[in-house]
UniProtKB/TrEMBL annotation:
<dbReference type="InterPro" id="IPR001544">
    <property type="entry name" value="Aminotrans_IV"/>
</dbReference>
<keyword id="KW-0100">Branched-chain amino acid biosynthesis</keyword>
<dbReference type="GO" id="GO:0008652">
    <property type="term" value="P:amino acid biosynthetic process"/>
</dbReference>
<dbReference type="InterPro" id="IPR043131">
    <property type="entry name" value="BCAT-like_N"/>
</dbReference>
<keyword id="KW-0028">Amino-acid biosynthesis</keyword>
<comment type="similarity">
    <text>Belongs to the class-IV pyridoxal-phosphate-dependent aminotransferase family.</text>
</comment>
<comment type="pathway">
    <text>Amino-acid biosynthesis; L-leucine biosynthesis; L-leucine from 3-methyl-2-oxobutanoate: step 4/4.</text>
</comment>
<comment type="function">
    <text>Acts on leucine, isoleucine and valine.</text>
</comment>
<dbReference type="GO" id="GO:0009082">
    <property type="term" value="P:branched-chain amino acid biosynthetic process"/>
</dbReference>
<dbReference type="Pfam" id="PF01063">
    <property type="entry name" value="Aminotran_4"/>
</dbReference>
<dbReference type="InterPro" id="IPR050571">
    <property type="entry name" value="Class-IV_PLP-Dep_Aminotrnsfr"/>
</dbReference>
<dbReference type="GO" id="GO:0005829">
    <property type="term" value="C:cytosol"/>
</dbReference>
<comment type="pathway">
    <text>Amino-acid biosynthesis; L-valine biosynthesis; L-valine from pyruvate: step 4/4.</text>
</comment>
<dbReference type="InterPro" id="IPR043132">
    <property type="entry name" value="BCAT-like_C"/>
</dbReference>
<dbReference type="InterPro" id="IPR036038">
    <property type="entry name" value="Aminotransferase-like"/>
</dbReference>
<keyword id="KW-0808">Transferase</keyword>
<dbReference type="GO" id="GO:0004084">
    <property type="term" value="F:branched-chain-amino-acid transaminase activity"/>
</dbReference>
């Protein structure tokens, strides 16, 4: 299969696709991104992702180089050109090319790029059957984690520590000892009282689209949702834990820092949320 990437107005063979060495995304991580799940040829929760993209752009005073309808055409054309039905769509908009100075001229031309890659859903579902291990570590990120910035070094470092420790995700902890979120996921527990808990939205976490979608399922599933932040000790003592992201949907967490969660297998609430999310998108 020939892979195609979209970069700044052109659909290019994947191996030839690139941005200029003085693109501010490359030199300063000056840009924002989105990741969409692609299921049976359709991107999930497109409107919510594009709304968040608009907010991220606005928060860093960046204007998209294309209109929303044009962006949709580009995303779909990149999917079509790659002939991928199930996978992940990645897009980013950087501030564009300029001589390296921290401050930027207002006249820059922002650069949009889009890639698509297949995803082995069978493998993801297989992992979800047994669940993943999480480690906790200090949240070393900046104070604007609500922006979906391509500047992800602390997230990358946290994930790498987790993987090298034999886990699959890192949950990060703020100065008050409360869990913020995963390195690339939203963190959730079903606490000892049976309440579904996840941190409330603020500048210290990303407004996850999967989080938004699960909120819509809560009533239907008669779950009690409580947006009170939780400590790592509450997570150790939780009945169930899971991480959410567009790439994972709902991923059960069965071990945190060596503490078995529940009976060490994916719990009923987690499983129900995963099934309901899948059904609502089928
Ligand atoms: N990560 N929190 C962080 C820090 C994330 O990077 C992500 C997503 C999420 C979940 O957001 P959503 O449900 O909208 O995918 C929460 C993406 C998938 C990534 O960086 O690959």
């Amino acid at each position: 299969m020939t892979r195609i990437a979209y970069v700044d107005g052109a659909y290019l063979p994947f191996d030839e696709a690139g941005v200029h060495i003085e693109d501010r995304g490359y030199q300063f991580a000056d840009g924002v991104y989105e990741v969409f799940a692609l299921i049976d040829g359709h991107m999930l929760d497109v409107d919510a992702h594009l709304k968040r993209l608009d907010l991220s752009l606005e928060k860093i005073s960046l204007v998209s180089p294309v209109s929303r309808p044009a962006l949709l055409v580009i995303l779909n054309e990149t999917i079509r050109a790659n002939n991928i039905k199930n996978g992940l769509v990645y897009m980013q908009i950087t501030r564009g090319r300029a001589a390296r100075n921290h401050a930027y001229p207002k006249t820059l031309h922002p650069v949009l790029s889009v890639t698509v890659r297949p995803m082995n859903e069978t493998y993801r579902d297989h992992v979800a059957q047994s669940g993943i291990k999480v480690i906790s570590l200090d949240d070393q990120r900046w104070k604007r984690c609500d922006i979906k910035s391509i500047s992800l070094l602390p997230n990358v470092m946290a994930k790498q520590v987790a993987v090298e420790a034999g886990a699959q995700e890192a949950w990060m902890i703020d100065e008050a000892g409360l869990v913020t979120e995963g390195s690339s996921t939203t963190a959730w527990i079903v606490d000892a009282a049976g309440k579904l808990r996840t941190r409330p939205l603020a500048n210290d976490i990303l407004d996850g689209i999967t989080r938004q979608m699960l909120f819509k399922l809560v009533d239907e599933l008669k779950l009690e949702l409580d947006e009170t932040p939780f400590t790592i000790d509450e997570a150790y003592a939780s009945k169930e834990a899971f991480s959410t992201a567009s790439s994972l949907i709902v991923m059960p967490v069965v071990d945190i820092d060596g503490h078995k969660i529940g009976d060490g297998t994916p719990g009923p609430v987690t499983t129900k949320l995963l099934q309901s999310y899948k059904i609502s998108n089928s």
